[in-house]
């Protein structure tokens, strides 16, 4: 199925409208489609996490022409305000920073795309956005907790549903054989890793 839409991504936190729209997608996919209890879908990590939503927007013919020549578009994705009209949230992902989880790694999760919009590259787009943000924040030391001796080294972890671990592998993640497989909400999962290369930035001291 082909959609005459232009996808674009927005990032937000728990108190932003982005999170409410992320929950619309998560509820549709995880609760309605996969049978996860509604009360378990939202958890204690949502508050401190970073959330992304990808939207399908149907611009007017004139703005569509402009979007095709938008010099600010990256990989065909534009965040220009004219594309926000008639937007529909169709996919989401979240990132739990080490500063929230107190773990030595970034935890990606809650990746979901509405069924009619799958196989359009939106899931990969969301993962790339999250990893790009992690690389930027991590390189600047934003995921470190010096007082607790935590310095993020670029490791990212996911709890992948076993039936899609091949998809994650195609996107650079490798299986955590030590973790084995486990059941989450009646769905079997495996752990998978990906290493992000960080460019640690030295502090500039002005004398």
UniProtKB/TrEMBL annotation:
Listed Pfam families: Acetyltransf_1
Gene Ontology MF term list: acyltransferase activity, transferring groups other than amino-acyl groups
Domain N-acetyltransferase: 34-197
Superkingdom of the source species: Eukaryota
Stored InterPro entries: Acyl_CoA_acyltransferase (IPR016181), GNAT_dom (IPR000182)
Protein name: N-acetyltransferase domain-containing protein
């Amino acid at each position: 199925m082909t959609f005459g839409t232009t996808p674009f991504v927005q990032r937000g936190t728990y108190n932003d409208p982005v999170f409410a729209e992320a929950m619309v997608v998560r509820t549709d996919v995880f609760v309605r489609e996969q049978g996860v209890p509604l009360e378990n879908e939202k958890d204690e990590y949502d508050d401190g996490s970073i959330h992304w939503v990808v939207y399908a927007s149907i611009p007017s013919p004139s703005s569509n022409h402009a979007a095709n020549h938008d010099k600010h578009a990256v990989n065909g994705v534009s965040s220009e305000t004219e594309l926000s009209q008639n937007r529909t949230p169709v996919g989401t992902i979240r990132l739990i920073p080490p500063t929230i989880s107190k773990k030595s790694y970034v935890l990606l999760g809650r990746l979901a795309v509405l069924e009619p919009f799958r196989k359009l590259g939106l899931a990969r787009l969301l993962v790339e956005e999250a990893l790009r943000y992690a690389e930027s924040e991590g390189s600047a030391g934003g995921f470190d907790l010096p007082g607790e001796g935590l310095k993020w080294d670029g490791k990212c972890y996911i709890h992948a549903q076993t039936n899609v671990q091949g998809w994650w592998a195609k996107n650079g993640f490798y299986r955590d054989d030590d973790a084995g497989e486990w059941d989450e909400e009646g769905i079997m999962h495996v752990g998978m890793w990906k290493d992000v290369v960080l460019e640690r930035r030295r502090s500039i001291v002005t004398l």
